[in-house]
Amino acid sequence: MAVIYQRENHIFTLQTEHTTYQMKVDDFGFLLHLYYGGRISGNTDYLLTYHDRGFSGNPFDVGQDRTYSMDALPREYPELGTGDYRNAALVIRNADGSESCDLRYVGYEIRKGKYALPGLPAVFAPEEEAETLEILLEDPVSKVEVTLLYGVLEKEDIITRSARIRNRGKQEIVVEKAASTCLDFVTGEYDLLTFYGRHAMERNLQRTRLEHGCFSIGSRRGTSSHQYNPAVILAERNATEDSGSCYGCAFVYSGNFLCQAEKDQFGQTRLLMGLQEDLFHYPLQAGETLIVPETILGYTDQGLGNLSNLFQRCIRNHICRGKYAHQARPVLLNSWEAAYFDFDGETIVRLAEDAAHLGIDMVVMDDGWFGKREDDNSGLGDWQVNEKKLGCTLGELIERVNAQGVKFGIWIEPEMVSEDSELNRTHPDWVIRIPGRKPVRGRNQLVLDFSREDVRGYIFDRICAVLDQGNIEYVKWDMNRSIADIFSTERPQGKVLYDYMLGVYDFLEKLTARYPDILIEGCSGGGGRFDVGMLYYTPQIWCSDNTDAADRVRIQYGTSFFYPASAVGAHVSAVPNHQTGRRISLNTRGVVAMAGTFGYELDPGKLTWEEKETVKEQVGQYKKVADLIRTGDYYRLSDPFRDDCGGWMFVSEDGARALVSVVMLENHGNMTVSYVKLKGLKPDTLYRETVSGKCYYGSALMKAGIPVPVEMGEYRAYQWEFAAC
Ligand code: GLA
Q1: Which of 254, 503, 551, 685 lies 20 to 30 angstroms, CA to CA, from 224?
Q2: Rounded Cα gap, residues 359 and 624, in angstroms
Q3: Ordered DSSP codes for 334-351
Q4: How far apart are CA 56 and CA 49, in angstroms?
């Protein structure tokens, strides 16, 4: 049993194979957090200590007892209003304007299976592999009801949390802040690992020592953003890649978020993950409910590598859905860096011919095929095929591509409208902008109000009309600006961004239902919406607009802490690289792109004969190892921000196969040798390196490592395949 309730002492215990999570309803009906960490037996309510703390108030109903304070006790869902002065998980503004709430325990329910969240992405699991706990809390004065939802995937060592906030009172209330997870730690010294970045340089790892005060990250951009990924790790100070305690916390949501980590006056730590409080004032009328998006939690005492595998597995098996979730992905040739806007139908057919010749499975016609779209200043929203530009209908073009034995994919950006577009001229009121103010421009485009069903419905019909024109097997769903000027003619502004996100999810749900065979790849200026929420609808996401192999080693390193390689869109592009001007060998570019879904983003017509031969070999090699990359356990072998090389490897579940990749990032005179220690192998198994035929024991490869060749030239890459003898 994964969820246990002990009636005699009101303790709830969530057990997974290696972790325990415990909480208790105390004598006053407060829900206190007791423990989350490695699996233990028995009750941990003895961890609660009570002292008279100066300036930490006491709830009225504890009488004269000054040792009882919500300001000091570990909480499960701290609301503003009970004398807890730390960051709150929930802030409610009542009808009289007061900001207060006092949640007390009402009841619970335990059931088989994992709860689902209407309208929102969430972890799913077969009925027999998960359990759900619901704990109902209520503020007796305002009648605000909060249901805390816990999902337990025992085998996966995963716990999920969400919250349902319902107004059972008679008057409107406003939810001013809502998190889905609060983790309180009464003891411990922690670092917070976050993943910051910018367009074309996403998910750089930062490890911050948590000291007194509050460290927070989040997004106000309407998307999860390039700037901070909505997934963080709370690690004990001594935790490393291979050892030590760490907690992962990933928000299953693609919009504005807030993550706060606080060390309080008593040296206790609180981690909160939830909806961004800025630009959020969610009114609930009598009877209405708000669902706070889910958080995925994982814990291990085996270091960051193990934590990453927990999350990667969870996302692969319990988030990604649809036909392609567990299927080989097509190797793509994308037209963007090959031609940008400068293409016609013949260009696409020529790319398809090249693709066929090189063994590439699919050609993707990126931006520029619709409306008046010769550059990125116009045309968005006018989803009519530009047949003049293509020189034929879309159906005819697809037939010509398919005739080469090559699949066809297409780019769309449904949430956007160009100022210079028919759609904007006809429906200026469909845009998110504040009446009477000039809107903030981003890439010279505006954002459609996807919180509105009529707007979504119109775009949905237009997009379907395109997708119905031929055998389209892939869609790249892009989103190329941050949202500003929050306002909607249809709803209070404090609701817009949350409802917008639910609108996007609704659109994607309908699209995937109508086209179950189409593979959708998410994208937002590369990895600006690379989050667990999007992966529920699109099993892969374009990782970054930066295709430079050296930068990609680092971007993909940061991405790997939570996200599986099966989700990481990665392509080989031309040199000099269009983002950095760097020249890196085709071999290295191939090795780096093989840490993801693999494809090309260049014009093969510009390759030499030798390069084409190399591409053919790369595609062949990728197809041989694609399953291992898609389903294998993933290990980081170096820190590319510190070490001379970037290294990573995949190991099949049975430990019989491994693929090791190393890229030298630094080269100096009289170069020192880098030794890479492999991971995840079986120590007593003999492995053969497939090219040299040399055999090594797993223990030797893992404990002693292998030397990376010292060779002239920058950014050389090596790939070794090992198979159990
Ligand atoms: C974004 C994407 C690119 C490309 C362009 C097209 O920047 O990340 O891959 O699709 O849009 O405009």
Answers
A1: 551
A2: 13
A3: ESHHHHTT---HHHHHHH
A4: 14
What three-state secondary structure class fits 421? coil
Question: How many angstroms separate the first and last alpha carbons of the chain?
Answer: 40
Q: What is the pLDDT of residues 69-119, one digit of tens each?
A: 999 999 999 999 999 999 999 999 999 999 999 999 999 999 999 999 999
Helix (H, G, I), strand (E, B) or coil at 595: coil
Residue 302 in this model has a pLDDT that exceeds 90 = yes
pLDDT for residue 489 is more than 90: no
Distance CA 711, CA 718 (A): 11
Which CA distances in Å does 439 have to 379, 414, 436, 484, 723? 18, 19, 9, 8, 58
Active site residue 76: no
Q: 3-state DSSP call for residue 316?
A: helix
User: d(Cα 155, Cα 17) in Å, to the nearest integer?
Assistant: 6
Question: Any bridge partners for residue 151, and if so which?
Answer: 132, 160
| Average pLDDT over all residues of the chain | 98
> Candidates 480, 481, 538, 555: which one to mutate for ligand 1, based on the most atoms within 8 Å of Cβ?
480
Of the candidates 294, 291, 289, 469, the residue with the CA atom closest to the CA atom of residue 370: 469
Q: E strands of 330-461, at which residues? A: 332-334, 362-365, 407-412, 416-418, 445-447
- Distance in angstroms (rounded) separating the CA atoms of residues 350 and 327: 28
* pTM, two decimal places: 0.98
- Name the residue of 367, 475, 540 to mutate for ligand 1: max ligand atoms within 8 A of Cβ: 367
Of 200, 333, 330, 349, nearest to 607 (Cα)? 333
Asked if 232 and 193 touch (Cβ cutoff 8 Å), the reply is yes
Protein residue with least CA distance to atom 7, ligand 1: 525
For 179, residues 6+ apart whose C-beta sits below 8 A from its C-beta are 89, 90, 163, 258, 272, 273, 274, 275, 292
Which one of the listed residues 184, 262, 521, 531 is annotated catalytic? 531
Q: Which of 628, 599, 627, 602 is nearest to 359 (CA)?
A: 599
- pLDDT-derived band at 538, boundaries 50, 70, 90: very high
